[in-house]
Every structure is written in structure tokens, then in C-alpha cells.
User: Fold this.
Amino acid sequence: MKALHETSFRESLAIQKRVIGALLMREIITRYGRNNIGFLWLFVEPLMMTLLILMMWKFLRADQLSSLNIVAFTLTGYPMAMMWRNASNRAIGAISANASLLYHRNVRVLDTIFSRVLLEVAGATIAQIVIMALLLAVRWIEWPADIFYMLMAWILMALFALGLGLVICSIAFKFEAFGKLWSTLSFIMLPLSGAFFFVASLPHQAQEYLLWIPMVHGTEMFRQGYFGSSVLTLENPWFLLLCDLVLLFVGLALVAKFSKGVEPQ
Amino acid sequence: MISVEHVYKQYQTRGGMRTVLNDINFELKKGEKVGILGRNGAGKSTLIRLMSGVEPPTSGEIKRSMSISWPLAFSGAFQGSLTGMDNLRFICRIYDVDIDYVKDFTQDFSELGQYLYEPVKRYSSGMKARLAFALSLAVEFDCYLIDEVIAVGDARFSEKCRYELFEKRQDRSIILVSHSPSAMKQYCDNAMVLEAGHLHQFDNMDEAYKYYNAQI
Assistant:
């Protein structure tokens, strides 16, 4: 055991890995418990939500509205939006749920937020892969045009979820009411994230405004990767990357600032 | 060694800034066992938290060249909805120690039996103290920061603590906060008095108590 006040970068990295690992295990235990299927809930939860939405679209809205595969359309929009929504909502409770664990000096406020977001992103990612594999197997959807481009979109949106989580958690720490409002606010924002439309199919004026929303670029990019040249998408990956970096920077700065005022309990 | 240099701690309260610790200076060498006396709210627990590194000082510096336990107190360190065993695993992962060894030691030392598999929030304060002690002894620190918890145990438990801390681990340092003079005299060689944010040091424990008692 080492706990001296100066550690090399390599030692710090090892400590960091241990702390994140321990917090992840701790989150999984309280969230999913040890009984029944346990941590499998991590992706069964988003899986069921996505399947439900898929069914609604497939059977209620019918496919005849357009030639586009509506199942694939939903699958390339909804789960991604749930990723940033759930991650930011879970981030809000990270500190109060772990306040007593901050008594261990290597456990920092940032670690608690990071672990929660990581768990949420991992769950969403596994759910996305499993459900795509399932639907591919039953031939409801076709093989994607460009998996690499989809992967890039997913990674950019995972970074977005992390940045957003840090920022939202910081604001909620300062203004408690905001934390309660955010679950509603983020729900209202879901449709704005581009999950239910192609930007190109909307009026020009609307397009201009929508393209200022970073999540729209993530969804458009993901769909470009899936559908390929058969659809017109208007994403700018660099804009999304820029938004990610700004959010991460602002988020880290805010967390660094407010975590000085967090008292371990 | 731990050296506390010009440490200040201020908190924002409704009545404005409140200085809890005002220019604290002292050194704790390896093997030294020192008590901290002070009235309620004097800042004893704050000082312990700063020494452990879970909270930063407002200004000043704390240099550590030995490993220091987390503050062993009635609150903190355990996640209430996790069982004692889950908390044990968490702590083993954080401090990178062997889970099996710590488990055996903790079962034996804490005598919690089946309670080890109950959520910590259901524990009595005595049970929490036993778990905290068992874990911190199993992890092995050079310096133990003890905030009251040592005084709650029954005779059997306090004998076990005495044996583990003073016979098997004579070379370790201790900072003890306690209102119990008998615990102070049993575990510490010397004491300091914290009064209105200032720390007073003495040559021996009797002088510290003389000063402290005169204050009340």
C-alpha cells in the first residue's frame, strides 16, 4: 500500500484504475443487486425500452409512410439519445450516493461522476450492439453501410454524454432544483436530438436552427454510417467534436471548482 | 512523518466566513501517539479530515511521508446500502490489498458474524466501529486517525484493539480524538489542545489536561 503525498504518473494511473474499477463494482451492486439476473439489467433495461419503441413504430405507425426501413431508423436514433439522457440524469445523484466513500482520499468527486457515466455509456453500447445483432439475425434490418463511421459517431456521442454529465452534475450541485427539472427538460429535448427525423427533410429555416444542436449531428452521422449514400444527412463531425471538447473542458473546470466545497459525510 | 505547516481552514456559513483552523503547525513522527483535546466544535474532526487528505486546507500544507488511514469515525467511509462485505471488497480494491486475507482478519477481529452480510446502515455504532477498525488494521497503515470510535467498544473489544495496535503494531503512529480521559491515557503518549482554531502543544499529557480542564 502506498499513500504518500507524491506519486509518479504511472502510480497515479494505477490508483485511478483501481478507484474507477471499485466504484463501478459498487454502482453495479446497489443498482442491480445480486439477485436474479443482476448486472445484466445494465443492458436489458435499454434493450427493452428500445424494443418497445421499435414495436410501436413498426406496428402502429406502419411502414408504408416511406420506403425507409422504420425499424432501422428508430434503432439509429433512439438508443443514442437515451445514452446522453440517462448518463446526465444518473450523474446528478453521483455525489450524494457516494459522499461517505469520499472518506477514502483516493476517491474523488470526479471519479464518482465518471464511473456512473461510464456505466451508463457501457450499458447503452452493449444494448445497441446486442439489439442490432438480434435484428440482423432475424433480417429486420440490413447490414450497415459503414460501421467505422457509425463507431466514430457513437464515440463522439459517448464523449458528449460524459461532458454533459459533468456540466449537469455541477449545475445541479449549485442549484438543487435544476437537478429535479433536468429529467423533464432532457425528456423534452429528446425529439430535438434528431432521433425522429432527418434534418434534410425539414424546411430550410428549421434546419438552420437544428444544426446548432450538437446531438443532431451525432444522430445524422450515425445514420449516414448506417444507411450510406441512400440518405441525405447534414452532419458536421468537427462541430460535434468541438462541442464535446468545450463541454468536457467546461465540465472538468466546474467539477474541479465545486468539488472543493463537497464535504465527505 | 506527517508535517502540518501553517494550515488554515475556513468554511462558508450563513454568518459569513468562519475560521475553524487558524495557523496549525506540528509534526507527527513515526511511532508517536498523540491525542487531541478540545470542546465540541473546536475543529478536531476537521483537523483529522485534513490530515487524512480527504479535504484540502484553505491554505498551508500537509506533507506526508507515511501512509495514513482514512478518518476512523462514526460517519463516513462506508456506503450504507452496501453490506459490510461489499464495503470490505470496495476498500480492498481501493487500497490494493488481498481480499481473502482482509476477509479472514475482519471476520475474526470484528466478530460481526452474519451481520457482515447485512447493509451497513443497519449496524449499531459499535458494530460500525468494529468493522472500521478491523478493516483499517487489515489494510495496514503507518498512521491511524481515530475520531472517537475507539472508546465505544466493550472491554473485550478494547483489549483486542490494544493488542493489535500496541503489541503487534508498536511502530505505528496514532492521532486520537476522544473525550474520554481513560482512552487518552491508555492509547496516547502526549496530547495537544485545540481551542478556538489554535493548537496548543505540551510536554506531557498531564500539562495538556491541566490546560484543557482550566478552560472549561
User: Anything to note?
Assistant: Chain A touches chain B at residues 1-5, 14, 18-19, 21-22, 25-26, 29-30, 97-98, 100-107, 260-261, 263-265 (CB under 8 Å). Residues 63 and 70 of chain A are 6 Å apart (CA to CA). Residues 109-137 of chain A form the longest helix (29 residues). The mean pLDDT of chain A is 87.
